[in-house]
Protein backbone atom coordinates (compact mmCIF):
# COMPACT_ATOMS: atom_id res chain seq x y z
CA UNK A 1 0.00 0.00 0.00
CA UNK A 2 1.03 3.56 -0.62
CA UNK A 3 1.08 6.06 2.25
CA UNK A 4 0.44 9.75 2.80
CA UNK A 5 0.57 11.43 6.19
CA UNK A 6 0.50 14.77 7.97
CA UNK A 7 0.81 15.91 11.55
CA UNK A 8 0.35 19.04 13.58
CA UNK A 9 0.08 20.26 17.14
CA UNK A 10 -2.60 22.42 18.70
CA UNK A 11 -3.21 24.36 21.89
CA UNK A 12 -5.95 22.06 23.15
CA UNK A 13 -6.33 18.92 25.19
CA UNK A 14 -6.64 15.42 23.77
CA UNK A 15 -10.32 15.21 24.85
CA UNK A 16 -11.10 18.55 23.15
CA UNK A 17 -9.41 17.49 19.91
CA UNK A 18 -10.99 14.06 19.97
CA UNK A 19 -14.46 15.48 20.63
CA UNK A 20 -14.25 17.73 17.57
CA UNK A 21 -12.66 15.06 15.36
CA UNK A 22 -15.47 12.59 15.95
CA UNK A 23 -18.29 15.14 15.51
CA UNK A 24 -19.41 14.13 12.00
CA UNK A 25 -21.90 17.02 11.85
CA UNK A 26 -18.95 19.43 11.83
CA UNK A 27 -16.82 17.57 9.25
CA UNK A 28 -17.86 19.80 6.31
CA UNK A 29 -16.29 22.74 8.16
CA UNK A 30 -12.80 21.27 8.12
CA UNK A 31 -12.32 18.06 6.11
CA UNK A 32 -10.81 18.96 2.75
CA UNK A 33 -13.11 18.03 -0.13
CA UNK A 34 -16.06 16.94 2.01
CA UNK A 35 -19.36 18.54 1.03
CA UNK A 36 -21.80 16.65 3.27
CA UNK A 37 -22.21 13.56 5.41
CA UNK A 38 -25.04 11.48 3.92
CA UNK A 39 -25.27 8.52 6.30
CA UNK A 40 -24.08 7.48 9.73
CA UNK A 41 -24.64 3.97 11.10
CA UNK A 42 -23.64 2.43 14.40
CA UNK A 43 -22.01 3.85 17.49
CA UNK A 44 -19.54 6.31 15.98
CA UNK A 45 -16.54 6.30 16.59
CA UNK A 46 -16.60 2.67 17.82
CA UNK A 47 -15.60 -0.34 15.69
CA UNK A 48 -18.27 -1.38 13.21
CA UNK A 49 -19.73 2.10 12.87
CA UNK A 50 -19.82 3.55 9.36
CA UNK A 51 -20.18 6.92 7.70
CA UNK A 52 -20.80 7.83 4.08
CA UNK A 53 -20.04 11.27 2.72
CA UNK A 54 -20.02 13.07 -0.60
CA UNK A 55 -17.23 15.24 -1.82
CA UNK A 56 -17.27 18.63 -3.45
CA UNK A 57 -17.67 18.50 -7.27
CA UNK A 58 -13.92 18.26 -7.96
CA UNK A 59 -13.38 15.65 -5.25
CA UNK A 60 -13.55 11.92 -4.67
CA UNK A 61 -17.30 11.37 -5.12
CA UNK A 62 -19.03 9.17 -2.57
CA UNK A 63 -16.72 7.97 0.21
CA UNK A 64 -17.48 5.15 2.66
CA UNK A 65 -15.64 4.82 5.97
CA UNK A 66 -16.02 1.91 8.41
CA UNK A 67 -14.34 1.90 11.82
CA UNK A 68 -11.96 -1.03 12.32
CA UNK A 69 -10.12 0.27 15.38
CA UNK A 70 -10.76 2.78 18.13
CA UNK A 71 -9.04 3.55 21.38
CA UNK A 72 -10.46 6.43 23.45
CA UNK A 73 -8.00 9.30 23.88
CA UNK A 74 -5.59 7.65 21.44
CA UNK A 75 -7.14 7.38 17.98
CA UNK A 76 -9.18 5.60 15.37
CA UNK A 77 -8.64 3.62 12.17
CA UNK A 78 -11.23 3.40 9.40
CA UNK A 79 -11.38 1.44 6.19
CA UNK A 80 -11.89 3.89 3.34
CA UNK A 81 -13.47 3.11 -0.02
CA UNK A 82 -14.37 5.37 -2.93
CA UNK A 83 -14.42 5.14 -6.72
CA UNK A 84 -10.63 5.31 -7.08
CA UNK A 85 -9.04 4.03 -3.85
CA UNK A 86 -9.44 1.60 -1.00
CA UNK A 87 -7.36 1.69 2.13
CA UNK A 88 -7.12 2.69 5.77
CA UNK A 89 -7.04 6.10 7.37
CA UNK A 90 -5.85 6.58 10.93
CA UNK A 91 -5.92 9.50 13.30
CA UNK A 92 -3.75 9.49 16.42
CA UNK A 93 -3.89 11.90 19.34
CA UNK A 94 -1.10 12.38 21.87
CA UNK A 95 -0.61 14.69 24.82
CA UNK A 96 2.42 16.93 24.24
CA UNK A 97 5.01 17.72 26.87
CA UNK A 98 4.25 21.19 28.13
CA UNK A 99 0.61 21.01 27.04
CA UNK A 100 -1.31 20.77 23.82
CA UNK A 101 -2.16 17.88 21.57
CA UNK A 102 -0.36 16.32 18.64
CA UNK A 103 -2.54 14.95 15.85
CA UNK A 104 -1.22 12.57 13.19
CA UNK A 105 -3.32 11.69 10.17
CA UNK A 106 -2.25 8.81 7.90
CA UNK A 107 -3.82 7.38 4.75
CA UNK A 108 -2.60 4.02 3.46
CA UNK A 109 -4.16 3.38 0.07
CA UNK A 110 -4.16 1.36 -3.08
CA UNK A 111 -5.44 2.62 -6.38
CA UNK A 112 -8.29 0.60 -7.85
CA UNK A 113 -7.25 1.23 -11.43
CA UNK A 114 -3.50 0.82 -11.05
CA UNK A 115 -1.29 0.25 -14.06
CA UNK A 116 1.90 -1.63 -13.17
CA UNK A 117 4.36 0.57 -15.04
CA UNK A 118 2.71 3.98 -14.90
CA UNK A 119 1.11 4.03 -11.44
CA UNK A 120 4.28 4.12 -9.31
CA UNK A 121 5.55 7.16 -11.19
CA UNK A 122 2.19 8.95 -11.09
CA UNK A 123 1.88 8.16 -7.39
CA UNK A 124 5.35 9.49 -6.61
CA UNK A 125 4.91 12.68 -8.64
CA UNK A 126 1.24 13.53 -8.21
CA UNK A 127 -1.11 11.25 -6.27
CA UNK A 128 0.75 10.96 -2.96
CA UNK A 129 1.53 14.68 -3.07
CA UNK A 130 -2.18 15.47 -3.58
CA UNK A 131 -3.24 13.20 -0.70
CA UNK A 132 -0.56 14.67 1.58
CA UNK A 133 -1.69 18.20 0.70
CA UNK A 134 -5.29 17.28 1.43
CA UNK A 135 -4.35 15.79 4.82
CA UNK A 136 -2.32 18.90 5.66
CA UNK A 137 -5.19 21.19 4.68
CA UNK A 138 -7.61 19.10 6.72
CA UNK A 139 -5.38 19.43 9.79
CA UNK A 140 -4.96 23.19 9.27
CA UNK A 141 -8.73 23.67 9.06
CA UNK A 142 -9.22 21.32 12.01
CA UNK A 143 -6.82 23.46 14.04
CA UNK A 144 -8.77 26.61 13.16
CA UNK A 145 -12.05 24.94 14.22
CA UNK A 146 -10.44 23.69 17.42
CA UNK A 147 -9.16 27.19 18.25
CA UNK A 148 -12.58 28.67 17.46
CA UNK A 149 -14.30 26.15 19.71
CA UNK A 150 -11.91 26.97 22.55
CA UNK A 151 -12.51 30.71 22.10
CA UNK A 152 -16.27 30.21 22.39
CA UNK A 153 -16.11 27.89 25.41
Can you lay out the helices and strands and say which pair or pack?
Blueprint (H helix, E strand, L loop, with lengths): L1 E9 L3 H8 L5 H4 L3 E8 L8 E6 L6 E10 L3 E7 L3 E11 L5 E11 L7 H34 L1
Antiparallel strand pairs: 1-7, 2-3, 3-4, 4-5, 5-6, 6-7
Terminal CA distance: 41 Å
Helix/strand-derived category reads alpha+beta
**Sheet with most strands: strand arrangement:** 1-7-6-5-4-3-2
CATH class: Alpha Beta
What name goes with the CATH superfamily?
START domain
Mean pLDDT, as a whole number?
Answer: 92
| Molecular shape | globular
| Main sheet record | 7 strands, antiparallel
Which CATH architecture would you pick?
2-Layer Sandwich
* CATH topology-level fold name: Alpha-D-Glucose-1,6-Bisphosphate, Chain A, domain 4
Residue runs with pLDDT of under 50 for 5 or more positions: none
Number of strands: 7
Give helix and strand order, one letter per element, not per position: EHHEEEEEEH
- The whole-angstrom Rg is 16 Å
Question: Domains counted in the coordinates: how many?
Answer: 1
* Helix content bin: 25-40%
Detailed description of the structure:
The protein has 153 residues and is α+β, with helices and mostly antiparallel strands. 30% of the residues lie in helices and 41% in strands. The chain contains 3 helices and 7 strands, in the order βααββββββα. Helix 1 packs across helix 3 (119-152). It is globular.
Please summarize what this structure is.
The protein is α+β, with helices and mostly antiparallel strands and 153 residues long. It is 30% helix and 41% strand.
Amino acid sequence: MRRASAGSSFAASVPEAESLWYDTARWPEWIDGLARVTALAGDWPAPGAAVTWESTPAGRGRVHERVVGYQPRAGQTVEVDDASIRGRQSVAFRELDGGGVGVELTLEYELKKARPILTPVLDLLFIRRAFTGSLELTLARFGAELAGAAAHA
